[in-house]
Amino acid sequence: MSYQQRDALVDRIVETQPSLNGFVRDRSADAFNGSWDLVSYSFERGFEALWDLAKAETNGLLEMPLLALWRQSVELAIKSAIFALVDRIDGKPGHNIQALFNQLLAIRADEGWNDDDELAQNVQAMIALVQSLDPFADRFRYPTDKGGKPYLGVAVDLDELYQAHWIITTWCEGAVMEMRRDC
Q1: What angle is formed at CA 123 by the lines to CA 139 and CA 99, rounded to 5 degrees?
Q2: Are the C-beta atoms of residues 104 and 75 closer than 8 Å to each other?
Q3: Handedness of CA 118, 123, 127, 133 (dihedral sign)
Q4: Is residue 134 a contact partner of residue 93, using CB atoms and an 8 Å limit?
Q5: Which residues constitute the domain of residue 115?
Q6: What does pTM read for this prediction?
Q7: Are 114 and 106 in contact (CB under 8 A)?
Q8: Would you say residue 65 has pLDDT above 90?
Q9: Positive or negative CA dihedral for 34, 42, 108, 98?
Q10: Closest Cα to residue 140, out of 125, 160, 161?
Q11: What is the average pLDDT across 102-115?
Q12: In a domain, 84, yes or no
């Protein structure tokens, strides 16, 4: 179905040769305006849709885009949780998901929550693994580092990748709901 849609779009381009000046533009009224939660959810849905496609492929061509989307979705889930709880991110953690997750844990600890259980430790371990493999959020997006040194390839277990995504994003959502419920 989507292949046919893409073909139809290409046919239309060839026929009309349109000017593409406005294919992306500002829009004053948008549900995404300022909503960390909605943007996070949209990346979660994008990850799930691409995961479905990657599972159907046998050549692994979608694995790197899927990993990049996975990482961005996890980063947004953590940032969304932080903004939901304190409406700011302290310091300049940038794309460092381990620093962001530590900040989320610190926010919860300041409110008396103890996240020293096995699930939180497993989430921390998954985040630490990805942060160590991709410390600058570029390994899954580019073939080389900034100095031109090629990145080593990665082996991806798509089922475990999906499970890790679900566990981390659900933990972040639950951390917010748990604290809000207690207020």
Answers
A1: 60
A2: no
A3: positive
A4: no
A5: 34-181
A6: 0.87
A7: no
A8: yes
A9: negative
A10: 161
A11: 97
A12: yes
Contact 105, 123 (CB under 8 A): no
Q: What are phi and psi of 62, to 5 degrees?
A: -90, 0
SS (H, E, C) 25-63: CCCCCCCCCCCHHHHHHHHHHHHHHHHHHHHHCCCCCCH
**Residue 153 placed within a domain:** yes
Taking residue 12's Cβ as centre, other Cβ atoms within 10 Å add up to 11
Question: Is there a domain that residue 7 lies in?
Answer: no
Q: What is the mean pLDDT of the chain?
A: 92
Has residue 20 got a pLDDT over 80? no
CATH number for the domain harbouring residue 173:
1.20.120
Grade residue 30 by pLDDT with cuts at 50, 70 and 90: confident
pLDDT in tens, 148-157: 999 999 999 9
Q: State both tokens at 95.
A: 């794309």
Q: What is the pLDDT of residue 7?
A: 87
Domain tally for the chain? Answer: 1
In a domain, 20, yes or no: no
DSSP state of 144: B
pLDDT digits 0-9 by tens, 110-119: 999 999 999 9
- 65, 34, 59, 41: which is closest to 170 by C-alpha? 41
